[in-house]
Amino acid sequence: MGRPVYLDCDTGIDDSLAIAYLMAHPDVDLVGVGTSFGNIDAHRAARNTLDLLALGGHDHVPVAIGAEKPLSGAWNGGPAHIHGANGVGDVELPRAGREPQTDESAADLLVRMAHEHEGELRVLAIGPLTNLARALDVETALPYLVESVVVMGGAARVPGNVTPVAEANIFNDPDAADRVLSADWPLTLIPLDVTMEHLIEESDRATLLAADEPLPRALGQMLDVYYEFYVATYGRRCAPLHDPLAAAVAAVGATPVMAPTVQVVVDATDGPGRGQTICDLRGERVGYPVQPTARVRLVLTLDAPFGPHLIERLTSA
Amino acid sequence: MGRPVYLDCDTGIDDSLAIAYLMAHPDVDLVGVGTSFGNIDAHRAARNTLDLLALGGHDHVPVAIGAEKPLSGAWNGGPAHIHGANGVGDVELPRAGREPQTDESAADLLVRMAHEHEGELRVLAIGPLTNLARALDVETALPYLVESVVVMGGAARVPGNVTPVAEANIFNDPDAADRVLSADWPLTLIPLDVTMEHLIEESDRATLLAADEPLPRALGQMLDVYYEFYVATYGRRCAPLHDPLAAAVAAVGATPVMAPTVQVVVDATDGPGRGQTICDLRGERVGYPVQPTARVRLVLTLDAPFGPHLIERLTSA
């Protein structure tokens, strides 16, 4: 068995890539998945997750539904122009033969798994952080039960993707993000600074579409709408690898190079900076001197292009 | 006569370099100076300005005192560890034989000069923007009277110098900055992104100290404390050229290369982003497409190193 990994997600096209990556990784034991609003609503995210798990031969992994809205305030629905109306690029996945857990919430499932795998569980969060914040309420010892936490979210020195400074996962629930990023656990943040630099291209989509297995083919189909959205950002059809890159860091399939531990504060005001991850990079010119109160490991670069590794993993099953 | 330039400043060591640069520039006609709290209090800033003007043979330029605190809230004093207790690195300048204007405030002087040089005045602001905000109240037509405005302030993609995201001039009065950056005039912003990349070194200080004229020698003396402060930032004794670089852009002595016109919003909340200039750089990968409501020209790079040009200008008088 590999390392126990718990996933919290809002499935989502890049979440789908991350789930497929985790299933394909020989050192990963995916022990549970919680879903959240974000790219799509939490119920649909659970449906998508179940269908992807079935397609990847992981029908045994428990899936629980979590938050349908942020800790405070409303949620205005997912971005259908990015992830399609169903969250998976309007691709119709074969329907799995089972339903999400009804007896426990995503937060409860996370807490249960943290106890079952005490000291070993890697928590990977690739959606809004509402479920993790709730789990911290349910079990105040949670930070000391898990091995580590990897979060895809935020932007340090690069523009946001919802506002000029805010990334979607953090913007969707700044209060939850503030709780999670200030909890006393070893947390690695995967911001847009690194995810926007690792891309998959049309040639990669062609490779997925030509695969023997149905899962990579479905992923290739989903990427059509996702690529189209990113033309305005990159000037061509391609996509950044937000969620799969975070999955790879959690699974030790990608190696951070520049990754200082710095103070990170979430802007939870109602001002123009709402949802920004304010990272203290003032030591950048002198090798990031130790910040005594800093707790977030901020991944800014990797040792190698991640796109080729991802495609190879997804098509070599 | 050169172009009429009005300066608003909080003199300050790098303000002193800017004043000396403007006096030495053959195409600049410095028509007035207003002072503000910031690096030092507004009264001391006026004293420093008068003394520098006298040392540079510009005893005719009117100097008026402006704001001693931001539009709202208090001011906690200048950073003596950066600019010395007197604002000019504890160097005792020869005392000028005159005093600041007593009959008009800095805001009033600016408005008067804008009328006297209607359509031609270049306004250069290198301190907190309180005086400019007040001038906009005094004369609502001010944006249409001046030729252009150049402001040293803010940080777009680089860390701040007061907080992880806020630069000192903006942080010192975010409300005033918000007013000035959203007024309907052609405004060029010179943020830390560009000023932190243009340095003067120990060899430049030696050149200033060896000059024949007393003004460059005094500047060389001031730089001692300033260089010492920047060791923590750069790992060696040197200094970035915040204010003189803005002066050079106003005087057309430095040429911006990457300078997109983008939406800039000032964070005037009391949250962790207070004082940040939130710049919309989301079009950076596709050549910054036109933003219809954008009004701020954001200078990110110059065509040449500015340090050598500055030193040559200061020592060739």
Second CATH tier, the architecture of chain A: Alpha-Beta Complex
Total number of helices of chain A? 14
Low-confidence stretches of chain A: none
Tally of strands of chain A: 12
Oligomer description: homodimer
Spatial shape of chain A: globular
Structural category of chain A: alpha/beta
Mean pLDDT of chain A: 97
- Bin the strand percentage of chain A: 15-25%
Strand count, sense and barrel status of the largest sheet of chain A are:
8 strands, mixed
Q: What top-tier CATH class of chain A fits best?
A: Alpha Beta
Strand order of the largest sheet of chain A: 3-2-1-4-5-6-12-9
Name of the CATH homologous superfamily of chain A: Ribonucleoside hydrolase-like
Share of helical residues of chain A: 25-40%
The H-and-E topology of chain A, N to C, reads as EHEHEHHEHHEHHEHEHHHEHEEEEH
Organism (chains A, B): Cryptosporangium aurantiacum
Domain Inosine/uridine-preferring nucleoside hydrolase (chains A, B): 5-304
Protein name (chains A, B): Purine nucleosidase
Keywords (chains A, B): Glycosidase, Hydrolase
